[in-house]
Each structure stands twice: as structure tokens, then as C-alpha cells.
Amino acid sequence: MKRILVTLSLLLLAQPLFAKELKELHDLPYGDHPRQVLDFYPAKSDKPTPVVFYIHGGGWQGGDKKTNPKAFNDKGISVVAINYRYVKQAVEEGVKPPVKAPLSDAARALQFVRSKAAEWNLDKEKIGATGGSAGACSSLWLAFHDDMADPKSDDPIARESTRLYCAAVNGAQVTLDPKPLREWMPNYKYGAHAFGLPNLDAVLSDREALLPLINEYSPMAHVTKDDPAIGLFYGGEVPVVGSSPKDPTHSAVMGVKLAEKLEETGVEVVLVHPGVKDPKYKSSTEFLIDYLTK
User: Measured in Å, how far apart are the chain's first and last C-alpha atoms?
Assistant: First the structure.
């Protein structure tokens, strides 16, 4: 009888701490601004779950965090979807350049999520970012940027890492530098609002003075060999470098150029666009599920 009781006690002690079901959370603040809020969609699991970190698109000027987490939750992956300050709000607050606001918000939200790992039953090492357009650009910026954690900070959230396990994005802008963008696509016009300027020609004319900021907020400028695996997904036309595509803002030409740099640097990359036959992954969702559940 004693042996049975001991066995039962050991079994009870071995039970996971997170056997209870966690509840969804909506509009949870990670900062003081009304747009610094996130939604949390927990996956049911007795062990810490991987996380998909969703950053919505909209040119850093619009959009919302609303998303459907089912495909990930069904595979045991939790989802966090964030809102962030738009560039117009950054201008109102005097943030320079304006793009600093949405990007630094994404980093802070990621740190906030990591700070909740124990409470939310999360594997803080396995976080993959995703998004489309500007949200894709933000995801890549996080993926490539050096860790922005401040280990000496009095703020425990600021001590958390901003590095990612992987990222899979849709229609991503890969740089904010107008010079290579115009060389790749002569009709490229997007991105001046990131620096509070009226058009890309204005960025080009002031490029030398802006270059430190361009490099700081351009994902491609931060690529190093220790970066995580990347999935790049594009629709539209078959990319031709030097052409003028119908939708240059989301053209796979950018994916081609980023993939070249990642391959040269030794970073694992999957590039999918209409010119790729029989891709291993048909979507960013498939990529994230595979990488986060390996």
C-alpha cells in the first residue's frame, strides 16, 4: 500500500503546471499608448508552446491585429497579435524617424510576450514572427537586428531578448534604402513616410544624411550569419530584377535580392513566388508550423 501511495504521489508531482486551460486575452496593454495592445490566443498544451508573433500590415499607417489563430492553435502553437503606433502618431509624438515607433513597439511587444512565458505556458525560445507588407518588414527587422535586450535595465521586460527562432512573411519590403530599390525596380515609390518625407525622390536627394537611419531601420542592413531561418512568400508576377512590376511595393524582386544575400551569408532561407515550381511550403503558415513544431 505504501508503495502504491508513493507511486501516486510521484505521479501527481510529475503533473505539468499548466494542465489547466488558459483563456484568450484581448487588448492587453504592453505600453502606455492606446495602440500598444495585443491579443493572446493560447494553444491547449501540457508543456510550453511555441509562439507565432503576428504583426499586421497597412504601411505602418493603418490596419489592425485581428487574426484567425486556428491553424496554429490546432498544431499546439500559441498566437500573439499586436497593434502598434502608426507613423502619423509617431509624428505627433515627435518620434524621429517616424518608422521608429512601429518597429520599436514590435520589439517591446515581443519582450513583453517573453516576460509572460511562465504565466502563459510559452516556449520563449521558439517564437516565429509573421505578417504581410509593412508587418512583414517589421518581422524581418526583428529577425535580423542584433538583440535589443538591456540586461542591466531596472525594467524586467527590457531585459528580455528580441531575437526570433524563425520568421515567415508575405509581400515583404526588405529595405528602406531608395538607391538599391530603384536599381531593382525603376518604378518603386514606397517608403518615404517612414522618414517623414513626401516621396521617395526626397529620400533619394537627402540619402547621404539619412543613411544612418536608413540602415538602422532596413532589415537587409542587419543580416548576419547567426540569423534565424526565413520564409519569403510573394504573389504577383514572376520577378525580373531591373523591371517595373505592376506592384513594386510587394514585388518578389525584393525577395530575390534578400534571398541572395541570405544565401551568401549562410542564413537558411526559403523563397516562394509564382516562378517557383513545386515549393516545399505553399504558405507562410505551413512554414511556421513546420519550423516551430520540429
Answer: 42
Sheet containing strand 166-170, edge to edge, reads: 25-29, 37-41, 78-82, 49-55, 122-132, 166-170, 229-233, 269-272
Q: How many CB atoms lie within 10 A of CB 30?
A: 22
CATH architecture of 24-292: 3-Layer(aba) Sandwich (3.40)
Residue 231: helix, strand or coil by DSSP? Answer: strand
Domain ranges of the chain: 24-292
Length of the chain: 294
Q: Indicate whether 253 pLDDT > 70.
A: yes
pLDDT digits (tens, 9 = 90+) for 139-179: 999 999 999 999 999 999 999 999 999 999 999 999 999 99
| Cell numbers describing residue 95 | 518620434
Sign of CA dihedral 109, 111, 113, 116: negative
Task: Let me know if 294 is exposed, middle or buried by CB neighbors in 10 A (0-12, 13-18, 19+).
Answer: exposed
Long-range contacts, 285-288 (Cβ 8 Å, 24+)? 285/71, 285/72, 285/168, 287/166, 287/168, 287/231, 287/233, 288/52, 288/72, 288/77, 288/128, 288/130, 288/166, 288/168, 288/231
Q: Is 86 helix (H, G, I), strand (E, B) or coil?
A: coil
Quick check: 1 pLDDT over 70? no
CB neighbour list of residue 190: distance below 8 Å, 6 or more residues apart: 59, 173, 200, 248, 249
Virtual torsion, Cα 107, 109, 114, 116, nearest 10 deg: 160
